[in-house]
Amino acid sequence: MRYYTSIKRIFAIVVVMCVTIGAESQQRFSSRGWTFRDPENAWVDSVMNTLSLEQRIAQLMVVRVPLDMNNKQAKEFSSQMNGYGVGGVCFFVGTAERQAPMTKMFQNDAKVPLLVCIDGEWGLGMRLKDMYSFPRNAEFGKMPHTADSIVYRMGEEIGRQCREMGIHINFAPVVDINSNPKNPVIGTRSFGTDRERVAQLGIMYALGQQSQGVMAVAKHFPGHGDTDADSHFELPVINHTPEYIDSIDTYPFRRLIDAGVGGIMVAHLQVNALDPSRPSTLSGPIVTGLLKNRLGFDGLIITDGMDMKGVTNSFGGGEGELQAMMAGNDILLLPPDVPQAIARIKSAAQGDDSVLAAVDYHCRRVLHAKYKYVKPYINDDIRVPDADHKAVCEDIVTDLQINIDTRIDSIVKKGLDAHAMPGCQIVVMRKGRVVLDRAYGSLTYDEGSAVVDPSTLYDLASLTKVCATTLAIMKLVDEGEISISDRISKYLPYLKGTDKERITIKEAMSHQARLKAFDAYWQQTSNRDSILLLVAESPLNESEGYCYSDLGFMLLSDLVLQVTGQPLDEYVSEQFYEPMGLMNTLFNPMSQSDESEGFLQTEIAPTERDSTRGDLNGYIWGSVHDPNAYAMGGVSGHAGLFSNAREVAMLMQMLLNGGVYDGHRYLKRKTVENFTRRHFDARGNRRALGFDKQLFNPSKNGQVCPEASQASYGHTGFTGTMLWVDPDYELVYVFLSNRVHPSSATNKLAQMNIRTEIQSAIYSHLKN
């Protein structure tokens, strides 16, 4: 019974498939087998049926647009080229203001939509004087791998500008490996000397550009990096072994093929190991045998300029174009004499069916490319990119400069060498993007210690005040549960009748409550409630004014419990950490209720050596460094939180966004603005609510670099941590370390001003 049921189901599926296919397409037989005529094939067929042999040949050609044409000359050029039926045009020098209307005219005159091309390796400014030029690829090659997304953004922006200008193909990226310092033509056009970096950055560029519907073209196949001649003037010779070519030269091309690059440009090279008789552009073994068959590339194959002397010196009169087509190229780029090339190929096709078949085959491939890259956008307005394109490009370059600034690494190295800290993490976010994400050093100074990585947890110390307690208070204010003008004693009855009865939330959070800075309560008790009572009983400072204090935040954590019924750690996890996906931001990382979710000691940076509390080799490792917080069970409003720089940066980015992250609102904008401004500045107090602020008179020796704006806010932590947010620059900076390891006695991190020097180096690249 099951057997017949299965047969019926299969039969029903086949019937449905046949009905669907019959309704949407027709079948036809070709020498390549059965295929279905979908809308793309139908469009290609319809165009092919309108083209003469000469026009099919012309579709393979992309011609150079002459320089400095007046309107009359441009019309004559358009009429002539479209009369031949060429497949496309390529712009080289001019302005966007001039190119845009010419492109419109050329397309309006074309019987078949044109492929509009440009050779803009470092942006349209490479060819158009009124557009932006990015730095050469070699500069991007200096970046660490953590910043690869910057190259993607560059490709994306170049693609966006191309799309607006009506350009469908940009002959980039260059993925040649710059292995010959005497190379006269590649050099800084390459991403570098390492095949992995060249391949990866080439992929980022290509995918960014193609995300905007503009074909990327990897060049120059099979690899132009190790040459000492310029193919514009002569034919360079490559004498590498087949093994070297396979493992080095063609490696980036294989990676880009796997990533889906749309086009590959073949160079004019004499590659003796692959074909000693012909230039690579004209070589069947190289173009068809290697690129198409061995590497499996099925995208558009484009010759390098056919007007370059590397070919024309030996193959003139259209012979170069004929051999390039027969070798397997789809696009014959910049033929020096279009009618002559058409005539030569036509003559060969009329006497040889294989040539005729090649013309049709490659013409179809060009039309398929037009269906994908031209037809969907043919009715789009062609225009000069908006004026803001320059600012977008400058942002990308700024992020590049931050990443390749060697000062940051040297400042960190100086600190590591001086044992100011065993290791650290740095994350910088600009305009909502992570632009710097680095980890340095080890967890300890011990030989064989695990290295710091981006996921390593650090004891945040007083960053807890803003990353936990302040967020919790902000949320309660948001929900109308409390007001910053409320007295804390309203929620903590044990403060009534004490000298702290009149202290407001606002005063405590601004360190304006006359509370003592600190006291060693852990020496008297290890009970949380007892410590809070000791805080309540401790005398206030005699003088009024600003005094940085842990005590107010210890009380505020209890306020959160009394108002919400949840301990601080549970409340902030539920309201912020979990919904934001912060799986590494937590209290007591070594004491998770679910053992499978706990952290290993090798995943956490240890702090100080302590003979009474030491967990491993006498170090405090995985429990909070602050003794009062430890005595309170590891959860307090002033200390106890652990995290990594990435997740701290995400929290701060949420505040910078006005309380929104990843489309979800966590806090009201007005609440964020109120908590990050000063409330007692008239009394000489620079602090905001929970947050520290820039000094009134910035100093190089301050807690934050003098370049930070007065709108900025943040905090530092005793264990060697710092976070800072600057709305004026849309900037988040996070530095985490365990500088108290193995002893907190000497604060070399502060003495050497490491955190603020790094911050200053970042600001040196920023512009308002």
Summarize the model shown.
The protein is of the alpha/beta class.
Provide tags for this entry.
39% helix; eight-stranded parallel sheet; alpha/beta; six-stranded antiparallel sheet; disordered N terminus; 27 helices; 768 residues
Give the termini separation.
76 Å
The portion of residues assigned to helices is 25-40%
Proportion of beta-strand residues: 5-15%
Q: Counting H and I runs of at least 4 residues, what is the number of helices?
A: 27
Largest sheet: 8 strands, parallel
Physical arrangement of strands within the biggest beta sheet: 11-9-7-6-5-4-3-12
Shape from CA axes?
elongated
Pick out the low-confidence regions. Answer: 1-36
By helix and strand content, what is the structural category? Answer: alpha/beta
Oligomeric state of the chains?
single chain
Strand runs, count = 23
Q: What's the Cα radius of gyration?
A: 33 Å
Mean pLDDT: 92
